[in-house]
Design brief:
Blueprint: H1 6-22, H2 24-37, E1 41-45, H3 48-61, E2 66-69, H4 73-78, H5 80-86, E3 90-93, H6 96-103, H7 120-131, H8 139-156, E4 159-162, E5 166-168, E6 173-178, H9 182-186, E7 192-198, E8 202-203, H10 206-220, E9 228-232, E10 237-238, E11 246-247, E12 254-260, H11 264-269, H12 284-287, H13 290-295, H14 306-317, H15 334-338, H16 345-360, H17 364-372, H18 376-389, E13 394-395, E14 398-399, E15 412-413, H19 424-429, E16 437-441, H20 444-449, H21 452-464, E17 467-471, H22 480-484, H23 488-503, E18 509-512, H24 515-528, H25 533-545, E19 546-548, H26 549-559
Parallel strand pairs: 1-12, 2-3, 2-4, 4-7, 5-8, 7-12, 16-17, 16-18, 18-19
Antiparallel strand pairs: 5-6, 6-9, 10-11, 13-14, 14-15
């Protein structure tokens, strides 16, 4: 990434994809016209069943018995392989990872590395069954088996089926990127090529498609570019003999596009989830997800795995598809930071969670605790009880619960009997006599009750940087626990209370020593209150005054050329 300006490329691609989604109906028309003008056939499938029917009908018309498939999440989404098998058409996956999981009768565990959960020993056992004798488990031998076995399928296939990384409307072109070269074989050896592609993959121009190429491999695998980048415009053709165009010289005579909707138009109508249509399926959000790293894609997600899987699955596979899986998101926001098209994944997952909670509810103890943890007095009361109850289990500032799976490996920070807001006057008394700026420190319930020393230290650092600091006493919690638990109504009420309280604070900046709390107020409030213009404006106004502690301290030190002074 060092040789590129990732942020600039990300902003550029985000803007291009946003514009494409805005203009999607017109782009579908334009792509259809241009693709048909160069000899392709274009079909539109409203849902998975229709897409499967279209592909099966083409197979029937061509009397196809064997098809080779290049890796395609869209065909996974519609269950195409299973559908074709039921119609008596043998479908062979030719991407190495996809072939491995096809042999294992599993589904992909990662968007771009479908067999990442398999060891080479397991792959060797699968391949041994294919060739009928033991196979060495070194990767070179395994790849040699795949090459030899899959080659015969390429040569004998009646049809090649692919997905698409982008569709270019101005030329009716399909963009495919792979590392193995199997898509090149699947799209050039068989006499017919079918591409099943989600409509959100359509972009206006070749330039837009190249903006995707610049970030797709970089985000997914860390490569500058994948090994193969194909642009396919119409079926194979030549005019080498007397300038008479002939179709199907070396490659397919027929090219069919199945443009798949399957919930995408409905997503486009939703002001929040519309952003998710920008996804270029790079898999980066899985790579950085701590939950995904522990449990893998078969648990974390549905057909689409990882953070984006939690977001799009309800639209393609129904609300219940990730009703429980959404609970694995920790709300750490790591996915947001790496997404090359700036999809607010963490926020969208909380939306999915709110819908899931509406359907399946929360346990009674959790509901009661969240309700109590919504007003300052009640929080103080509950925290006081917990501080008393933790006594027997407390040791060195930590609490180790004596039961349950968590007890084996985790200690929880003890609830402090002396929260930060108890020390508000103490902080005020140590303010510098001629301050450079006035800061309100909103401690958040986490810092206030679990790590008040960190909040106090943050106040002292800001004072050392020349700021007058006052601890905000009227509010305890921003509502993140409720938001993250799907208790939307309580979260909305808490957001409004917090906005009202923090608007009254007289300070140049409001600093929050908890980044998740800062993100909730600066990003989630406006989205949470999107249906109410006045509150949304107030949320945005407040967001401008809020700064996470670390960033503000660094800014302050830089702007004022302050190197700090020893704390007294
Ligand atoms: S949501 Fe973003 S990071 Fe995740 S797969 Fe899509 S483009 Fe990549």
């Amino acid at each position: 990434m060092r040789e590129i300006d990732w942020t600039a490329l990300r902003d550029d691609l985000t803007a291009r994809k946003t514009a494409a989604i805005d203009d999607l109906p017109a782009l579908v028309e334009r792509f259809t016209e241009e693709a048909e003008a160069v000899g392709a056939k274009v079909y539109r499938a409203a849902d998975a069943a229709e897409a499967n029917r279209i592909v099966a009908a083409i197979c029937r018309a061509k009397k196809a018995k064997l098809v080779v498939k290049s890796k395609s999440m869209a065909t996974e989404e519609i269950g195409l392989t299973e559908h074709l098998e039921k119609q008596g058409v043998r479908a062979i996956e030719t991407d190495l990872g996809e072939w491995i999981i096809q042999l294992a009768h599993e589904r992909p565990s990662h968007l771009i590395a479908p067999a990442i959960h398999k060891t080479r020993e397991e792959v060797a056992q699968l391949f041994a069954k294919v060739v009928g004798h033991p196979v060495p488990d070194d990767t070179a031998s395994l790849v040699a088996v795949a090459r030899a076995e899959l080659r015969q399928y390429f040569l004998n296939a009646d049809i090649g089926i692919t997905g698409g990384n982008a569709l270019i409307a101005e030329t009716g072109t399909l963009l495919l990127v792979t590392n193995e070269g199997n898509a090149d074989l699947a799209t050039s050896v068989p006499p017919v090529h079918i591409a099943v592609v989600g409509i959100e993959k359509i972009v206006p121009t070749l330039d837009d498609a190249m903006a995707i190429v610049k970030l797709l491999a970089r985000s997914g695998t860390g490569q500058k570019i994948t090994t193969y980048t194909q642009l396919i415009t119409g079926p194979s053709r030549s005019a080498d003999i007397e300038l008479k165009t002939q179709i199907g010289v070396h490659g397919p005579k027929e090219l069919h596009f199945v443009l798949l909707d399957n919930g995408r138009s409905a997503m486009r109508e939703d002001p929040a989830f519309r952003d998710a249509l920008r996804c270029i399926r790079c898999g980066a959000c899985s790579n950085v997800c701590p939950s995904y790293q522990v449990v893998g894609g078969h648990v974390f997600g549905h057909v689409y795995t990882g953070a984006i899987g939690l977001v799009v699955s309800p639209w393609h596979h129904g609300t219940d598809s990730v009703a429980y899986e959404q609970g694995m998101c920790l709300g750490c926001n790591a996915c947001d930071t790496v997404c090359p098209v700036s999809i607010p994944l963490a926020s969208l997952i909380t939306e999915v969670r709110a819908k899931a909670v509406e359907r399946i509810g929360l346990s009674l103890p959790k509901r009661l605790l969240l309700k109590q943890w919504s007003a300052p007095d009640a929080i103080d009361r509950v925290a006081g009880w917990l501080a008393m109850l933790q006594g027997p289990f407390r040791h060195d500032g930590l609490v180790r619960v004596p039961f349950g799976a968590i007890a084996k490996e985790k200690s929880l920070p003890a609830i402090s009997e002396r929260p930060l807001h108890f020390r508000a006057r103490e902080v005020t008394q140590t303010n510098p006599s001629s301050p450079a700026t006035r800061v309100a420190l909103f401690p958040s319930c986490l810092v206030d009750r679990l790590i008040p020393e960190a909040g106090y230290a943050a106040a002292r650092v800001l004072q050392a940087l020349g700021a007058e600091v006052h601890v905000v006493e009227g509010r305890r919690c921003c509502g993140l626990p409720q938001l993250n638990s799907g208790e939307r109504a309580t979260a909305v009420a808490m957001a409004k209370d917090a906005i009202t309280a923090l608007e009254r604070v007289r300070a140049d900046r409001i600093v929050i020593p908890s980044s998740s709390c800062a993100i909730t107020i600066t990003q989630d409030y406006a989205r949470l209150l999107a249906g109410d213009d006045e509150w949304r404006e107030r949320a945005l106004g407040l967001a401008e005054r809020i700064t996470p502690f670390t960033r503000f301290a660094a800014e302050l030190a830089r702007e004022r050329a302050i190197r700090g002074r020893p704390l007294g």
